[in-house]
């Protein structure tokens, strides 16, 4: 799946990417992808845009980066708003 998206977004960006960094491959295989396929697509697209040369890599901090929970929202909502 990773190879498919790398190829797809590389073609879209007009880049020639022929290799995937070993660390990136291990990172993608070990991450559970709770955001499912859309999360993978977004990270691959962002990475392709930033990649220079023919090696695809993903910044280690990107998978798993979640926006912070808004302040004051903790636990269930109150009975009345």
Structure characterization notes:
The chain is mainly α. It has a domain at 2-56: Helicase, Ruva Protein, domain 3 (Orthogonal Bundle), CATH 1.10.8.60. The protein is 44% helix and 5% strand. It has three helices and two strands. The protein has helices at 2-13, 22-30, 36-50; strands spanning 19-20, 55-56. It has a two-stranded parallel sheet. Helix 1 (2-13) packs across helix 3 (36-50). The termini are far apart.
Identify the CATH architecture of the domain at 2-56: Orthogonal Bundle
- Multimerization state: single chain
Helix content: 40-55%
Kindly report the spatial arrangement of strands forming the biggest sheet. 1-2
Kindly report the average pLDDT value: 83
Q: Tell me the strand percentage band.
A: under 5%
**Overall 3D form:** elongated
Low confidence ranges: none
Number of helices: 3
Number of strands: 2
Q: Which secondary structure elements does this structure contain, and how are they paired or packed?
A:
Blueprint: H1 2-13, E1 19-20, H2 22-30, H3 36-50, E2 55-56
Parallel strand pairs: 1-2
Helix pairs in contact: 1-3
